[in-house]
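Progress note, sequence design subtask.
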């Protein structure tokens, strides 16, 4: 997969403690969109200090609407990497992503999470993998209880 084909988005609200670390792990990305829910801390100022970041403020109504708003900012021919402000990408993730040869029928990639405890990666995680990398065309968000659910047309594969 070519990294230039990916647009990253991150939803934020008062994430000054996390956003810098998150964005440091995204310096490879040509375009990162921050959709901020009118933070009243330094989140926006920190995000604006990165040259590959565009900050858009949007009032939070629901998770699904905020995610859909972010998707609406991205061209249809791109792959989307959706992150939370407290998620970090590892070099192992990027190496696997670069080596990825995605079949035409695949429109979603499941990514598993590893937790960091005092800077050390935990060897296991109970958090389920999620489709966090997906083709923009045919993708949309739906409200699912108190959070959101991504719906995409096509098959899904899983990263290690």
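Output:
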């Amino acid at each position: 997969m070519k990294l230039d084909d990916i647009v990253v988005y991150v939803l934020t609200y008062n994430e000054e403690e996390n956003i810098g670390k998150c964005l440091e792990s995204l310096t490879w990305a040509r375009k990162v969109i921050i959709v901020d829910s009118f933070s009243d801390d330094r989140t926006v100022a920190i995000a604006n200090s990165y040259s590959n970041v565009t900050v858009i403020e949007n009032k939070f109504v629901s998770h699904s609407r905020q995610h859909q708003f972010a998707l609406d900012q991205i061209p249809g021919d791109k792959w989307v990497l959706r992150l939370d402000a407290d998620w970090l990408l590892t070099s192992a993730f990027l190496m696997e992503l670069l080596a990825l040869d995605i079949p035409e029928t695949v429109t979603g990639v499941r990514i598993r999470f590893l937790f960091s405890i005092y800077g050390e990666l935990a060897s296991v995680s109970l958090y389920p993998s999620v489709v966090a990398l997906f083709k923009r065309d045919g993708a949309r968000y739906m409200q699912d209880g108190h959070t959101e659910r991504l719906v995409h047309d096509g098959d899904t594969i899983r990263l290690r």
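Residues 26 and 43 are 16 Å apart (CA to CA). Work on this subtask will continue into the next period as scheduled.
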